[in-house]
Amino acid sequence: MSRKYKKMKNSQLYKGSLNTIIMKLLEENGKMYGYEITQKVKAITQGELNITEGALYPALHKLEAEGLLDVEIEKVDNRMRKYYKLTETGQKENVNRLSELEDFIRNMQSLVNPSPKLEF
Amino acid sequence: MSRKYKKMKNSQLYKGSLNTIIMKLLEENGKMYGYEITQKVKAITQGELNITEGALYPALHKLEAEGLLDVEIEKVDNRMRKYYKLTETGQKENVNRLSELEDFIRNMQSLVNPSPKLEF
DNA sequence: CTATTATGTATAAGAATCTTATGTATATTT
DNA sequence: AAATATACATAAGATTCTTATACATAATAG
């Protein structure tokens, strides 16, 4: 019964980007555990994106089930940690997803920031 | 019984961005009808993002119900068109959403393209 | 010292958004 | 004459997320 009310309400825009974020962070850091990922994301985005456990853990389990992540359990200070890292398949898939993300960002910028109409 | 198979499977990344896209296009073009929006988006993204009717029409109806869009029916060539435009509230809300989108893009770039670690 | 907060994982119920599949109808092109 | 393009609409199911719990230990605050 800890877990104080944390009203986060991330922008809907982040919906669908969690898997890509997880995989990119794992690529970058080698291995990470769930709680560490939430803290890292919060730090990088200066508190703007707060990944909830209810979203994170199912996502990690799914990526593992799909063979994109490997898990390795450690016990630190008597507390359990599940370290995740990309499998080889995961590394290949990560390349695709980052490429998709670049396309996505480029397309969103085209939509929102159209090249100005030329005046004659 | 037309409707040829159109397998689109947009990247999950676009999930959550439809409302923002709609409102931005309406701000830019004054008024648009549904089908026009799908074609415009396809053109701008060079075919990479294909908005489905099953997503678009419910989204338009919801934005209208929320008071962000106004609708105006016209008949062109004996075919119905429902033109949508931003209400005043919608214009204000659009500013917020575009600002959220900028933050989102910035954050995603930070996550994916971190500033290189300095070496000493 | 005891209550809260931080660290750490997990799942279930429900909301929100989207894909896929239809349905209806007219205009245009093949 | 048939297929495609234009134009709207909704329902079923999938996916992803929020919110609310649950359990457990370590560290900090009052």
What would you note in describing this structure?
The structure is a homodimer of 120-residue chains. With 120 residues, chain A is α+β, with helices and mostly antiparallel strands. Chain A has a single domain, classed as Winged helix-like DNA-binding domain superfamily/Winged helix DNA-binding domain (Arc Repressor Mutant, subunit A, Orthogonal Bundle). Chain A contains four helices and three strands. The termini of chain A are far apart. The model of chain A has no long low-confidence stretch (mean pLDDT 92). Chains A and B meet through helix 1 and helix 4 of A and helix 1 and helix 4 of B. The first copy, chain A, binds a DNA duplex (30 and 30 nucleotides) through residues 1-5, 7-10, 12, 14-16, 18-19, 33-36, 39, 52-55, 57-59, 61, 76-82.
Coarse structural class of chain A? alpha+beta
The tally of beta strands of chain A, per DSSP, is: 3
The 3D shape of chain A can be described as: elongated
Strand proportion of chain A: 15-25%
Largest interface, chains and sizes? A-B, 31 and 31 residues
C-alpha end-to-end distance of chain A: 67 Å
The gyration radius over C-alpha positions of chain A equals: 17 Å
Query: Order of SSEs of chain A, N→C?
Result: HEHHEEH
CATH topological fold name of chain A: Arc Repressor Mutant, subunit A
What is the domain tally of chain A? 1
Main beta sheet of chain A: 3 strands, antiparallel
Oligomeric state: homodimer
Q: Could you give the order of strands across the largest sheet of chain A? A: 1-3-2
What would you give as the CATH superfamily of chain A?
A: Winged helix-like DNA-binding domain superfamily/Winged helix DNA-binding domain
**CATH class descriptor of chain A:** Mainly Alpha
For the record, the CATH architecture of chain A stands as Orthogonal Bundle
